[in-house]
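For consistency, the fold was encoded as tokens, as this record shows:
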Amino acid sequence: MPLVQTRGAASAQGFGEFAQVTAVNYIEDVFSCFLYTGTGATQTITNNIDLSTKGGLVWFKPRDTGNNHNLIDSARGLNKFLISNDTAAQGTTGAGYGVASFNTTGFSLDPPWTSSTNTTSTSYVSWTFRKQPKFFDVVTYTGTGSNTTIAHSLGSVPGSIIVKRTDTTAAWAVYHRSLANTEYLVLNSTAAKATGATWWNSTTPTSAVFSVGTDASVNDSGGTYVAYLFAHDAGGFGLTGTDNVISCGSFTTDGSGNATVNLGYEPQWIVRKITATAGNWVLSDTMRGLLASGDPTILNPNSSAVETTDTFININSTGFLAVGLAASRAFIYIAIRRGPMKVPTLGTSVFAPLARTGSGTNPTVVTTGTNPDLLMSFPRTANPSAYGTVFFDKLRGVSQFLQSANTNAEATTSGTFCLQSFLNTGFQTGADFVQGYLNYSGATYAQYAMTRAPSFFDEVCYTGTGADPQTVSHNLGVAPELMIFKARDVAAGWRFWGGNMAITEYLALSETSAVVTGSTFFGSTLPTSTSFYVGSGLSVAARTIVAYLFATCAGVSKVGTYTGTAAAQTINCGFTAGSRFVLIKRTDSTGDWYVWDSARGIIAGDDPYLLLNSTAAEVTNTDYIDTANAGFEISSTAPAAINASAGTFIFLAIA
């Protein structure tokens, strides 16, 4: 059996003398944005956050109806709710209504007491904050009417504190580190920042306590209160315990209303507020459409209004851009890091292949069992779609797609007809009776849902600067071994690099050509664990480009190369139960981009394949690859495009 070459691998979490002896914290263990549809009956939301033993807060908002935000936390009890857009005292649900339980993997809902948690057919978003030092804490206290301090367990100096009186009407008081300790904001109001020494006692909080003055909103004698505390750049996460996952900061726009904010990570949740003048609180997240470019989907914590779109915040691999806000104005924000941070150990947690038949129904929910960031859809017949494989992804937005069989610019489609939403366990599509990309009635599809995760897969959207080379940050956590680039705003070729190719070489995803030398594309510099480099061909000023990055992740994925033998050979990927996805391309000569998957069949007999570079229907009567527990086998009947003697080939396999 020939040697199979590859580069890099995900390192283990720790073995022997390097094994972790203390708990390792990740953002996916303490925060979740989860979308669901109300049933009007008991249902369980599994977001893998332990609220039962750790405690925390769940914040609910109906997305498509003008009903209230509801906040329910472990400190006050499951039958107590507060409304962020109202000054009302906490309400009490009746027995058997509202939130039924906080669980070790999420929470359960009973029939709704109000319309804000589980009304039949209503779309909801829930944001779960688990108590965790250096991230979030919940504290309840009774007011004294005198200046006092309140102990907390945040384990770091709070970056922001939200206080609400629970026994009677009162404003939601907001402390933020970017304001003076004599200033405050009001969560249920559009009002500008105000000065009031009696709110925080003109005292900055510490890692052990925060201070309240004598204002009734924060410290009336005998009044009852809840405080939500958010950390700021406190570390405490990741393998080294030094990674930040939450930031409470500020920015000031320039004369055009623009600003660049460097968080040091890609965010998934941002709430912001203009401070010196009146304006809404604005909350966005990546599940509902916080994008690399384009209009994010927003809700306003101070309003019961349905979600709408905004034009002001776009995210990137290191933070976010404010675009077209009020000119020369200061804003505060709270931002939370995108997950997952853990290196996956199972392919099934980050990749799902589907073989399905379109229903033509609007809407259709497709369950993948994963939280996908990228959806690739192959029509298996030449009709109804003449576009071949389409790429949809969360970062670019559900209405934007690219086609791997041509060089077209990014195109837009309506959610009525096509992809409508990425869900926590799959995706939702429309009737799709126009183009037939995803759900045309009776059409058959091969569809692949991929989740961004360290050492496996990452996506970066960037804008060219014209620099040669231009340095672009990524969050793959290891050096990419396979990179795919596509210009979004203009028609231009797909560019592919990986395997044992020189950094001055590339392949074209929509073509059959062999490796081409082109030093203008990758800056003649190998990628690192934090950055990749693009030359003038991929750094055209103002051009928007998407990059898909893959690496070898032990037991999950393999990027590698092999040499053809014209005879059967096994490609060892280090797997234990075989490959569920295989992509192969010949590099030394012409050849198609072949794709197989276990949903359609990787078996000992005939295995149907599709081509990334073609709109042709799948081929079903060939036996070019076979199963092998360690990876996959190239069969003796494979043609030169897959197994030419002495030919060189690159592959991506996913377990």
User: Anything to note?
Assistant: The chain has six domains: 30-130, 136-230, 246-337, 347-450, 457-550, 557-654. The helical segments are 197-200, 216-219, 640-643. Residues 197-200 form the longest helix (4 residues).
